[in-house]
Amino acid sequence: MRFLALLGIVAAIGCTNVIEEKNVVYDERFGDSTAMDVYLPDNAETGRPGVLWIHGGGWSSFHRDVHTDHAIRLARAGYVSATIDYRLVPEGVYTDLVKDCFCALAHFRANADAYGMDPNRVAIAGYSAGGHLVSMLGTTYDLAETAPDCGAGPAAPPNAVISGAGIHDMRAMPASSVVSDFVGGSKSEVPERYDVMSPILQIDTETPPFLLIHGTADLFVDIEQSEDMQAALRVEGIEARMLTIEGGGHITNVGSDIGHSDTVVSSIDTPEAWTVMSDFLERTIGAP
């Protein structure tokens, strides 16, 4: 896949080696369903920024290794980076997944000293269903329905959010078993749940800055989801940047050369996305 080649852009600077801590369980109650892999720059620096990656897959599939290459790339650039698993549908439904992600974020921060990381410089990033979950973490940290009871501490907002092709208004999603299985019913059956799971309804003046990335030809998640989220964030005075990938879809996107036969998997893997993400991270949580 073409995004592997993009690793060289950052790998050429900063650290050349990465320390890997695999299968770190962040919630013993659910074992391997709630594990993370942590990637550390191979140096003795402290107070480094961190990035937590949350994978997509319709809330029911895939694994944290979807973002392994992204995490390693950032670790080589000097960030502490981690990828997480969470309970998937049908093991986890509705707010279970959000609570798991909050517990992962709390565990990541609770171990900041061991990782040489500043717990107040942590961004979260995700794509598709992962884009929805990171937006939930950015907006529902004080919502009773999503408050976790994890051992590492209470829910706290990240310092910045990167949401690629995320769902921000669950009410606007077409009826499908993927959505209803996750939420626990249809819009007519449990409308209040669709409200809770819509980050666009949970924004307040304390919401952290957002970077939204979306392809104009996304057939799974309409680009209006990100456009409307940006507008809603700005109404509350929240920094909200948006990168539009012209012609970008949900599953495949054009690589670095327009019209080139090679493709990358998602809009966040495009060269322009990595340029914008790097700038956003530097401005919000600071450079390593």
List the helices and strands and how they pair.
Elements: H1 2-11, E1 18-25, E2 35-41, E3 48-54, H2 68-76, E4 80-84, H3 95-110, H4 112-115, E5 117-127, H5 129-139, E6 160-164, H6 177-183, H7 191-196, E7 210-215, H8 224-235, E8 240-245, E9 253-254, E10 263-264, H9 271-284
Note down, in words, how this protein is organized.
The chain has 288 residues and is α/β, with parallel strands linked by helices. It has one domain: Rossmann fold, CATH 3.40.50. 31% of the residues lie in helices and 20% in strands. It has an 8-stranded mixed sheet, sandwiched between helices. Helix 1 packs parallel to helix 2 (68-76). The two termini are 27 Å apart. The model is unreliable at 1-13 and 255-264 (pLDDT under 50).
Question: Which residues sit in consecutive blocks of at least 5 with pLDDT less than 50?
Answer: 1-13, 255-264
Can you give the helix content as a percent range? 25-40%
The helix-strand sequence is HEEEHEHHEHEHHEHEEEH
Per CATH, the architecture is 3-Layer(aba) Sandwich
- For CATH, the homologous superfamily is named as Alpha/Beta hydrolase fold, catalytic domain
Number of domains: 1
Tell me the strand order in the biggest sheet: 1-2-4-3-5-6-7-8
**What's the mean pLDDT score?**
90
Structure class: alpha/beta
Number of helices: 9
Would you tell me which CATH topology applies? Rossmann fold
Strand % is 15-25%
